[in-house]
Write a structure and sequence with these properties.
single chain; mainly alpha; 5 helices; elongated
Length: 110
């Protein structure tokens, strides 16, 4: 825990704990709204940004870059326990788009 304190202070950064439910909620939200299947811990930046904005630490009009370092295939067990069964597609783009729209409401053509 000590290794991150000095750089965080030097950069005027912040660190915060994000609950599993918040990460998993954002995992689902990203899948539905953006068609991105993030690994749960990779989605942790999004609830953290929400909290920091609500506390005024990040201004509402500030531009924020959130890096996601892993995709959902890294941790399929977590998704399988929380989400509905992953949609199946035959392997062509049209069928994949159909499956995403039916399962998540995501329409890549919009």
């Amino acid at each position: 825990a000590r290794g991150f304190r000095r750089p965080r202070r030097a950069s005027n950064g912040v660190a915060m704990f994000v609950e599993d439910d918040a990460m998993l909620g954002w995992q689902e939200r990203l899948a539905r709204s953006e068609g991105i299947w993030a690994e749960p811990s990779a989605a942790a930046t999004f609830p953290a940004i929400e909290r920091l904005r609500s506390r005024g630490i990040i201004k509402n009009d500030a531009t924020v870059v959130a890096l996601m370092t892993a995709g959902g295939l890294k941790d399929t067990d977590t998704a399988n326990r929380r989400l509905a069964k992953l949609p199946a597609a035959r392997g062509d783009v049209d069928d994949a788009l159909r499956a995403l729209k039916e399962a998540y409401g995501f329409d890549a053509r919009d």
